[in-house]
Structures are given as C-alpha cells and as structure tokens.
Design a protein that fits this description.
Elements lengths: L4 E4 L13 E4 L4 H15 L5 E8 L8 E9 L24 E2 L12 E5 L14 E3 L2 H10 L4 E9 L5 H8 L4 H9 L6
Parallel strand pairs: 1-2, 1-3, 3-8, 4-6, 6-7
Antiparallel strand pairs: 4-5, 4-8
Helix pairs in contact: 1-2
Length: 191
C-alpha cells in the first residue's frame, strides 16, 4: 500500500519533511492545484489517501485555529445568468455544487467544515461562502473525486478574510505547521 500524499500550495506554508508521507507543492490557485496533483498521480501512482494542508481565511473561525474541511464548494463559480445556482458547476449532475468527503475515516479533528475555494484572495468586510476560504482545496477534492482517492483538508486560519487579511496572512503564514504536525501528522503517525 502506498504512503499518503500531503499536498500544500507553498513551501512557506509547510516545510517539515517526513518519512511516512510524500509531499507535493502545487503553487497557488485551482488550476495549478489540479494540474500538479493530476501530474503527480500519473507519474507516481495512487496514494493511500490525500491530505491538503494550508492557510485559509475565515470570518467564522478564530484566527490561529486548525480545522478540518471535508466539504468543498467553488465560491467563484457563478452561472446564475443561465439558470444555475451560485457555486453550481453546470451539467455535472448531483455533485455539481458541493463535494463531500465527510466519511474520511482517519480524521483526528472532525470539525467537518466547508471550504469555499476561489481564485481570489478575500480581503473585504463582506461575508463569504463556507466556513473557511482558500484558493486550492476544491480543485484538489475534485481530482480526488475523479480518481476515487480519499481526501481531507486541514486549514490553519491565518486571517479573518477582512481588510487586514494580506497583512495577517503574511505574518501568520508559517505559524500553523507545528500545530498541524502535532494535531494531525503525529496522530496519524505520519511523522
């Protein structure tokens, strides 16, 4: 059986190497995430499961918290002018709006939150979809759904997705990796 795969957008978010998992950096955004994960799967084969770790913003979860996300929506998908619901990908049947991996068996946190992914960094006083917002998880979840690979995301809340989000994200970018190691990787015996 293959080791699990840990996927992060940036090395600045997580740089602790471990021996019981493979580590992939995808770069920022949904397209980069999907391309690099798919390329990995074709070159290296199917891992036992995939964990995504990274930073996220949230108006609903306290900054400096570590949470798990098992449900994923595409917050910048809006084809409502053609009669589809907001966040719904047209013509994809029952999985067109939300991807749900809540049955992930090895989840040490069990918050079961919804991550709203989009290709924009949220920094406004407006509310946002989902419990947390990021820029890669939906794409990773969709690749995992396509290839029938168990998936979960763990997000360190680096900012409140408000007007100070860019300052807070830069200041807190690296702060979650030790918490993630202790709360997730150690409990899964991956480090």
């Amino acid at each position: 059986m293959n080791n699990p795969l840990l996927v992060c957008a940036l090395e600045d978010e997580f740089s602790l190497k471990g021996s019981n998992y493979d580590l992939l950096y995808t770069g920022v955004g949904k397209v980069n995430a999907a391309i690099h994960l798919t390329e990995y799967l074709f070159k290296k084969g199917r891992p036992e499961y995939i964990i995504n770790y990274g930073t996220a913003g949230s108006k609903k979860v306290n900054v400096f918290s570590l949470v798990d996300c098992t449900k994923f929506i595409q917050r910048d998908m809006d084809v409502s002018e053609l009669g589809f619901e907001r966040y719904e990908t047209p013509f994809e049947g029952e999985l067109s709006k939300k991807i749900d991996f809540s049955t992930f068996e090895k989840n040490p946190l069990n918050d079961l939150l919804t991550c709203a992914t989009g290709d924009s960094f949220l920094a406004s006083d407006s509310s946002h979809a989902g419990d947390v917002v990021d820029m890669e998880s939906y794409a990773l979840a969709k690749v995992c759904l396509k290839f029938d690979i168990p998936f979960i995301a763990f997000k360190y809340i680096s900012d409140s997705a408000d007007k100070d989000a860019s300052i807070d994200w830069k200041a807190n970018l690296r702060k979650g990796q030790k918490l993630f190691k202790k709360s997730v990787l150690d409990s899964l015996e991956l480090f």
